[in-house]
């Protein structure tokens, strides 16, 4: 898998993970903010009318609501479409006002048994003297109980309202859509910038380094790559250093090979001077049929290495046959005849043992008497 594909995969995984975590965080944040806003609006709406309500509750702590109280309760329910139902309670929990007059004056227990409150928020509000809000109907509504406090923070009554969360949910959904759009745009911007950085600073330089390395050969052990001060430049410098070491090693090997060849030629000079009769010509041939050493002067213009066929052309098949048989029969002396410069010669060829890892054939041409 290429670097761009890996980067794209990791970027997508990281952004999806971050988006999901961020989405959960912002969803709960929006839910808290908008639900709190809804609850505060309900509390403020009741507290705005609390002084008048507390006054009437003090003058008539039990029983049904006065005409003015009933008008206020009807106005609250009529003017706010978020309120699904409203129940006005006395401090002891009895029904002070209900849109259905048959419940007026009914105790909390009887009303809860016959109709039923959505939650026990009213009980908590009377007990603690604080507003209470409890989610009901699978989170679609809040059952809120807002206490009306008299002097000394005594609970004089409670307004119990069931409030729809529809508007709050719409606000949460619209906020989440905006979050998703913003996150998507941000991901595109960040991803585009990171991709350009990756392309310009990593992918293209790596491609140029790859081309430079592929252009290196034994004939040109030099890396053509511009100097850089980053990690890619460090890799290029390391490759250049490696090529310098390779050039030095090759040069050392060539020097060793030249020295070995010169030493071997001196060795052959001594051996052939002792073993080859005077007037005979001797040639030492390597595994590639190149002339390694002769006991006579041999020069072929324009060639550094002289091949056996440079001396004996293709018409002299017998000597080629003798050399071929010598290759197939190591250490065995093979004989034949050849005409060299109008002189008929006896040819002897033997392949020496290759214990040193080098195949050498000694070819001796003796003029026939």
* Rough outline: rod-shaped
- The total count of strands amounts to 10
Assign the structural class, choosing from mainly alpha, mainly beta, alpha/beta, alpha+beta, or little secondary structure.
Answer: alpha+beta
Order of helices and strands: HHEEHHEEEHHEEHHEEE
Strand content: 15-25%
Tally of contiguous helical segments: 8
CATH topology value of the largest domain: Beta-Lactamase
The CATH architecture of the largest domain can be named as 2-Layer Sandwich
User: How many domain modules?
Assistant: 3
Helix content: 40-55%
Q: In angstroms, what separates the terminal alpha carbons?
A: 78 Å
Name of the CATH superfamily of the largest domain: PAS domain
Rg: 54 Å
Order the strands across the largest sheet as they lie in space: 2-1-5-4-3
Give the class-level CATH name of the largest domain: Alpha Beta
Largest sheet: 5 strands, antiparallel
Question: Quick check: average pLDDT?
Answer: 85
Q: What are the low-pLDDT stretches, counting only 5+ consecutive residues below 50?
A: none
Q: Could you explain how this protein is built, in words?
A:
Helix 1 runs antiparallel to helix 5 (166-214). The chain starts with a helix and ends with a strand. Helices cover 53% and strands 18% of the residues. It folds into three domains: 3-173, Beta-Lactamase, CATH 3.30.450; 220-274; 276-367, Beta-Lactamase. The protein is built from eight helices and ten strands. The strands form two sheets. The chain has a five-stranded antiparallel sheet. The longest helix has 57 residues, at 3-59. Strand 1 (83-90) and strand 2 (95-98) form a beta hairpin.
């Amino acid at each position: 898998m290429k670097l761009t594909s890996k980067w794209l995969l990791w970027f997508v995984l990281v952004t999806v993970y971050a988006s999901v975590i961020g989405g959960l965080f912002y969803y709960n944040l929006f839910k808290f903010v908008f639900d709190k806003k809804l609850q505060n609006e309900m509390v403020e709406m009741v507290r705005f009318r609390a002084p008048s309500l507390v006054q009437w509750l003090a003058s008539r702590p039990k029983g049904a609501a006065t005409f003015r109280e009933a008008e206020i309760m009807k106005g609250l329910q009529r003017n706010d479409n978020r309120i699904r139902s409203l129940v006005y309670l006395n401090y002891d929990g009895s029904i002070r006002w209900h849109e259905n007059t048959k419940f007026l004056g009914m105790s909390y227990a009887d009303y809860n048994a016959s109709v039923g409150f959505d939650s026990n928020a009213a009980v908590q509000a009377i007990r603690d003297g604080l507003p209470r809000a409890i989610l009901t109907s699978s989170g679609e509504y809040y059952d809120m109980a807002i206490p009306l406090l008299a002097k000394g923070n005594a609970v004089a009554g409670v307004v119990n309202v069931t409030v729809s969360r529809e508007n709050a949910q719409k606000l949460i959904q619209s906020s989440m859509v905006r979050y998703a759009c913003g996150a998507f745009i941000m991901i595109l911007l960040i991803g585009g910038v990171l991709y350009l950085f990756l392309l310009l600073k990593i992918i293209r330089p790596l491609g140029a380094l790859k081309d430079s390395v592929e252009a290196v050969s034994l004939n040109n052990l030099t890396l053509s790559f511009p100097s850089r001060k980053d990690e890619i430049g460090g890799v290029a410098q390391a490759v250049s250093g490696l090529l310098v070491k390779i050039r030095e090693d090759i040069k050392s090997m060539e020097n060793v090979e030249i020295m070995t060849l010169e030493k071997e030629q001196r060795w052959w000079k001594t051996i052939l001077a002792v073993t080859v009769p005077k007037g005979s010509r001797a040639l030492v041939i390597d595994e590639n049929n190149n002339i390694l050493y002769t006991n006579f002067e041999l020069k072929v213009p324009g060639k550094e290495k002289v091949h056996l066929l440079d001396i004996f052309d293709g018409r002299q098949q017998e000597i080629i046959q003798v050399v071929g048989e010598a290759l197939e029969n190591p250490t065995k002396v093979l004989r034949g005849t050849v005409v060299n410069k109008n002189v008929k010669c006896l040819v002897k060829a033997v392949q020496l043992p290759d214990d040193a890892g080098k195949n050498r054939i000694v070819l001796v041409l003796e003029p026939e008497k």
